[in-house]
Amino acid sequence: MCEREQEALCNRPVGVFDSGVGGLTVAREIMRQLPNERIVYFGDTARVPYGNKSRETIIKFSRQIVRFLQTQQVKAIVVACNSASAYALEVLEKEVDVPIIGVIKSGARAAIDATKNDKIGVIATEATIGSGIYNRYIKEHHPDAAVLGKACPLFVPLVEEGLWEDPVTDEIAGRYLTELIDVGIDTLILGCTHYPMIRSTVGRIMGPEVTLVNPAYETAHELKQLLREKGLESGHRPGLGTELYRFFVSDAADKFQKFANSILTYGILSAKVINIEEF
């Protein structure tokens, strides 16, 4: 491949997708850690949440989104959704001709490195906990670990309503997290991309002796390493006038834009609605 072709390939965007707005926490970390990279983000806001859907449905939705991202000439794909990473990633890896990573393995590896007493907790959606994927991956790489998963379905709507620091969130979090405190975990994986938005609440309830693992941060770090290894890293920040970040959704663009502007350093001007069922 000639230098000009390689440069054109490196200048392609990274595709990021989630069932809705939660994956913006992953996009935010990519913006922070890889400021030279362009991003195409898709949020499946018409069909959110994925956490209560079947494996077959999640795979179907994920395939449609990947086909859309491929029309945007992405050079790599980040599955910024724990449910899709749990059920669809292995299928997608066999079907996609660009590097693709999810949020689960990087978070699990960070938890293994962090734990001192080998007691690791995972909070996530019902689909992610039900898949058992965190437990399997952690036990495969650290057989002595005891992994306790807890589904926390109410966290997602609380985050999307902006109730990040609210007595209601404190009350719900206290109920969810009590059994994790009782078993004495020293590491807790925030196993849903929405959960970093209530990290301070979770941390306050768990106490300073418990390390919180944010897979969004770890995934951005893994992406940086992957692009470098594959020779796909963008060597310079795109010039003035270049559209760094593009956002697409399947519904409710205004609501998505409002949430995105509340958490992203770079405000977004618009999010385009597409009919994902066409892909």
Q: How does this model look, in words?
A:
The protein has 279 residues and is of the alpha/beta class. The protein folds into 2 domains: 3-102 and 218-278, 3-Layer(aba) Sandwich (Rossmann fold); 104-215, Rossmann fold, CATH 3.40.50.1860. It has 13 helices and 10 strands. It has helices at residues 3-10, 24-33, 55-71, 82-87, 89-95, 104-114, 126-131, 133-141, 155-160, 167-182, 199-206, 215-229, 253-263; strands at residues 14-18, 39-43, 76-79, 100-102, 119-124, 146-151, 187-190, 211-213, 245-249, 272-273. The strands form 2 sheets. It has a 6-stranded parallel beta sheet with strand order 4-3-1-2-9-10, with helices on both faces. A 4-stranded parallel beta sheet has the order 6-5-7-8, sandwiched between helices. Helix 2 links the parallel strand 1 (14-18) and strand 2 (39-43). Helix 10 packs across helix 11. The two termini are 30 Å apart.
